[in-house]
């Protein structure tokens, strides 16, 4: 499902806890890549691993995903509380996930095409 937008299984798995809060995505990637570094050093330890296993289009696609994907589950819960129902949070989540997927797909394909040619 996430292969067309350049995501490997590690990225796909890290997106799940990343829904709690976006900053958790780095920690989740560290866990997925089985790092033994402390929380502060996780980003520095991830750099060489990511440079080896991700292409530039994959990294750009992930950035596009995080620009458009829903902020976090707490945001959806707040929308539910304010609107008094599930209709608007479900519409919002569907729209934002669809937009994030489309933006990631276009970013991955266009950047791959530009780098190849």
* H/I helix tally: 6
Structural class: mainly alpha
Low-confidence stretches: none
How helix-rich are the residues, as a percent range? over 70%
Q: Strand tally, please?
A: 0
Distance between the termini: 26 Å
User: Rounded to an integer, what's the Rg over CA atoms?
Assistant: 16 Å
**Beta fraction of the residues?**
under 5%
Give average pLDDT, whole number: 88
Largest sheet: none
Shape: flat
Number of separate domains: 1
- The ordered H/E elements are HHHHHH
Secondary-structure topology with pairs:
Blueprint (H helix, E strand, L loop, with lengths): L8 H10 L5 H9 L9 H12 L2 H13 L4 H11 L3 H30 L1
Helix pairs in contact: 1-2, 2-3, 4-6, 5-6
Q: Would you kindly provide a written description of the structure presented here, covering whatever features stand out?
A:
The chain is flat. The two termini are 26 Å apart. α2 (24-32) crosses α3 (42-53) and α4 packs antiparallel against α6. The model has no long low-confidence stretch (mean pLDDT 88). The longest helix has 30 residues, at 87-116. With 117 residues, the protein is mainly α. It contains 6 helices and no strands. The protein has one domain (3-116).
